[in-house]
C-alpha cells in the first residue's frame, strides 16, 4: 500500500481536476439543461456509498465471527466514508430535485432507503463514539443488521410509486454523457481506494500509540 | 435442552413480572399517553387525518416496546443476573429466545389493551378482520422485539444505554413500522382490504425470519466478553 500511495494521490487529484472540464464539455440534457450536470456527482457518490457500506458490513461480520481487529478498523473507516459520501448524495439530491421535481424531498423508495441507510451508519458511528467499552462489537452487529436491512427496505418501499429514475437510466445515456459519467465514477472510486486504507492506517497508529502510553504508565 | 432453557428463562421473567407488574403497568400507561400525545398532532378539527389510527397504534407499540426492553434488562443488570445467565451451562441462544418470548408476551398484553382503545377513539373497524389484525400485530412485535432483545442485551454493559437503544433500534426496525402501519391502515379502511394487508403480512413474516436468524447467529459472539 505504501508504494502505490503517491500514485493514488496523483490519480485522484488528476481525475478530480479534469472532471469539471469534462462535465462542462458534456452535452446539455434536453429538458433539465444545466441542472442535470449535478448527476455526475450525485450518482457516482451514491455508488461509492453503497460500495463502502458493503465493505463495512463484510468487515464487521469478519470482526464479529473471526475476532479480526484489522477488519474492525476497516469497518469503522468504511462506516465513516459511507456517512461522508452519503452526505454528498443527500445534499446534491435535494438540490437537483428542487429544480427537476419542484420539491426538495419526496417520500419515495430510493430517497427513503438512502436516508435510512445513512442513518444506520450514522448510528454505527454514534455507538462507537459513545458506547463505552465493548462498543466495537455492538457497532459491528449494527452494521451486519444494517446490511441485511437495506435490500429489505428497498423492496418494502418499492411498492410505493417512485419518481426517482432507476438504475436502468445509466446504459441509455447519450454517448457524450456516458464517457463523462464513467470518468466521474472512476474518480470517486479512486478517492475511496485512497481514503479507506488511509483511515484504517490512522486507526492502527492510534491503537499503537494507546498501547505505548499504557506501557509507559506501567513502567513508571 | 434448548427449548427447556428458553422456557425456564421466559417463565422466570414472567414470574417476576406477575409478582410486581411494574413493567406491564408502566408500559401500558406510557402507550396510552403516546396515543394521547399523537392524537393532538394528527387530529384536525375533530377528525383524524387519513391513516392516523394505524400510525398512532404502531408509534405507541414501538415507543412502549423500547421502554419495556430497557426496563427488562435494567432488572437483569441490577444484580448482575444477566452475567449469571450467561455463565450457566446452557446454550446462549436459548437464553436469547427465552428473553425474546417474555418481551413479546408482555407487549402482546399491552397491545390487547391498546387496540380496543384505538378502535374506540378513532372509530376504526378493529373487528372487521380480527385474525389478520392480530397476525400483523404479532408478526410486527416479534420482528421489533427480535432486534430489540439483542441490542438491549448488548447495551447492558454500555454507558449511555438509555439513549443508544432507540438510536440503534429505530433505523433497523423501520421495515416493521412500514409493514405494520401500511398493513393495519389497509385493514382500517372502509371496506378493509385483506389483500393488501396479506401482502404486508408476508413481508413482516419475511422480516421476522431474517432477523430472528441473524440474532440467533450473532448472540453468541456478541455476548462473549
Number of helices of chain A: 6
Number of strands of chain A: 0
The average pLDDT score of chain A comes to 83
The CA-CA distance between the termini of chain B, in Å, is 24 Å
Could you state the order of secondary-structure elements of chain A as H and E?
Answer: HHHHHH
Task: Decide which structural class fits the backbone of chain A.
Answer: mainly alpha
- Give the % helix of chain A: over 70%
Uncertain runs of chain B with pLDDT below 50, 5 residues or more? none
Tell me the count of domains of chain B. 1
Low-confidence stretches of chain A: none
Brief summary of the model shown:
The complex is a heterodimer of chains A (220) and B (225). By secondary structure, chain A is mainly alpha-helical.
Explain how this protein is built.
The complex is a heterodimer of chains A (220) and B (225). Chain A has 220 residues and is mostly helical. Chain A has one domain. The two termini of chain A are 37 Å apart. The mean pLDDT of chain A is 83. Chain B is globular and about 55 Å long. With 225 residues, chain B is mainly α. A two-stranded antiparallel sheet of chain B has the order 1-2. Chain B has one domain. At the A-B interface, α4 and α5 of A face α6, α7 and α8 of B.
Amino acid at each position: 500500500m505504501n508504494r502505490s500511495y503517491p500514485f493514488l494521490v496523483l490519480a485522484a487529484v488528476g481525475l478530480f481536476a479534469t472532471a469539471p472540464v469534462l462535465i462542462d464539455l458534456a452535452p446539455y440534457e434536453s429538458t433539465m439543461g444545466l441542472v442535470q450536470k449535478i448527476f455526475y456527482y450525485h450518482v457516482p457518490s451514491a455508488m461509492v456509498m453503497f460500495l463502502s457500506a458493503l465493505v463495512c458490513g463484510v468487515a464487521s461480520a469478519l470482526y464479529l465471527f473471526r475476532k479480526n481487529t484489522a477488519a474492525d478498523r476497516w469497518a469503522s473507516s468504511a462506516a465513516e466514508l459511507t456517512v461522508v459520501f452519503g452526505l454528498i448524495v443527500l445534499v446534491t439530491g435535494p438540490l437537483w430535485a428542487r429544480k427537476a421535481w419542484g420539491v426538495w424531498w419526496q417520500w419515495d423508495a430510493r430517497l427513503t432507503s438512502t436516508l435510512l441507510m445513512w442513518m444506520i451508519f450514522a448510528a454505527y458511528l454514534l455507538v462507537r463514539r459513545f458506547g463505552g467499552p465493548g462498543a466495537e462489537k455492538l457497532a459491528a452487529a449494527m452494521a451486519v443488521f444494517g446490511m441485511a436491512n437495506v435490500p429489505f427496505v428497498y423492496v418494502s418501499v418499492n411498492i410505493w410509486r417512485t419518481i426517482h429514475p432507476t438504475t436502468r437510466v445509466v446504459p441509455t445515456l447519450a454517448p457524450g454523457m456516458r464517457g463523462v459519467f464513467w470518468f466521474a465514477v472512476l474518480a470517486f472510486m479512486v478517492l475511496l481506494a485512497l481514503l479507506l486504507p488511509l483511515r484504517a492506517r490512522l486507526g492502527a497508529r492510534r491503537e499503537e500509540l494507546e498501547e505505548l502510553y499504557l506501557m509507559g504508565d506501567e513502567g513508571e | 435442552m434448548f427449548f427447556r432453557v428458553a422456557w425456564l428463562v421466559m417463565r422466570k421473567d414472567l414470574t417476576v413480572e406477575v409478582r410486581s407488574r411494574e413493567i406491564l403497568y408502566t408500559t401500558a400507561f406510557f402507550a396510552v399517553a403516546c396515543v394521547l400525545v399523537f392524537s393532538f398532532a394528527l387530529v384536525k378539527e375533530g377528525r383524524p387525518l387519513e391513516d392516523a389510527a394505524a400510525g398512532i397504534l404502531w408509534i405507541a407499540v414501538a415507543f412502549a416496546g423500547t421502554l419495556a426492553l430497557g426496563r427488562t434488562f435494567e432488572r437483569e443488570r441490577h444484580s448482575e443476573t444477566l452475567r449469571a445467565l450467561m455463565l450457566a451451562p446452557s446454550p446462549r441462544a436459548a437464553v436469547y429466545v427465552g428473553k425474546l418470548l417474555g418481551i413479546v408476551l408482555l407487549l402482546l398484553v399491552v397491545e390487547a389493551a391498546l387496540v380496543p382503545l384505538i378502535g374506540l377513539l378513532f372509530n376504526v373497524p378493529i373487528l372487521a378482520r380480527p385474525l389478520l389484525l392480530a397476525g400483523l400485530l404479532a408478526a410486527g412485535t416479534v420482528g421489533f422485539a427480535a432486534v430489540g432483545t439483542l441490542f438491549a442485551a448488548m447495551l447492558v454493559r454500555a454507558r449511555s444505554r438509555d439513549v443508544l437503544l432507540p438510536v440503534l433500534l429505530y433505523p433497523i426496525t423501520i421495515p416493521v413500522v412500514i409493514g405494520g402501519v401500511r398493513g393495519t391502515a389497509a385493514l382500517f379502511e372502509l371496506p378493509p382490504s385483506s389483500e393488501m394487508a396479506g401482502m404486508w403480512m408476508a413481508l413482516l413474516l419475511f422480516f421476522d425470519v431474517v432477523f430472528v436468524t441473524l440474532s440467533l447467529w450473532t448472540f453468541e459472539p456478541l455476548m462473549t466478553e
